[in-house]
Design brief:
Nuclear Transport Factor 2, Chain: A; 9-stranded antiparallel beta sheet; 47% strand
Length: 148
């Protein structure tokens, strides 16, 4: 019975995401949005556009790293998420990791910018079973921490 309930919940959630974000033909993306995107990311590959509520979302690869950007209809980027390398983390964050998470290695990092505010979602791992997902602000303050 538990498995049936879990499967029902999984399909319900998947269905909700399908309703809210729909792939769209790049020819149906407003010209100002495509021009802004192409100007900022001329080397983008694997570009996919979605209509996400009232926003246009573009997913793409740039320099082998995944990116997602949400645009308002006026062409302004309202949210951006992209993978970064450990070397690109601010020094304040690497210092906190070294002192507060000794023995952990950085597995992946995602940088998110919303309305000019930036956070870093860092996945840390130690050994086979010890994983943490820690969100930092730019100055290295821990905003949230979850055990994966």
């Amino acid at each position: 019975m538990k498995n049936r309930n879990l499967i029902t919940v999984a399909f319900t959630v998947l269905g909700a995401f399908t309703i809210f974000a729909q792939d769209i033909d790049p020819n149906n993306v407003p010209t100002n949005l495509k021009q802004s995107f192409e100007q900022h990311y001329p080397q983008a590959s694997d570009v996919e556009w979605e209509l996400d509520g009232q926003s246009y979302k573009v997913e793409f690869n740039n320099n082998k790293l995944e990116h997602e950007i949400w645009y308002a209809t006026d062409g302004k980027a309202t949210r951006a998420e992209h993978e970064i390398t450990t070397a690109d983390l601010p020094q304040a964050i690497t210092s906190v990791i070294a002192s507060n998470y000794a023995g952990y290695k950085v597995d992946s990092v995602e940088k998110t910018t919303v309305d000019g505010s930036t956070t870093y979602d860092v996945e840390l791992e130690k050994g086979w079973n010890d994983e943490k997902d820690v969100v930092f602000n730019e100055s290295g303050k821990v905003l949230s921490e979850m055990i994966d």
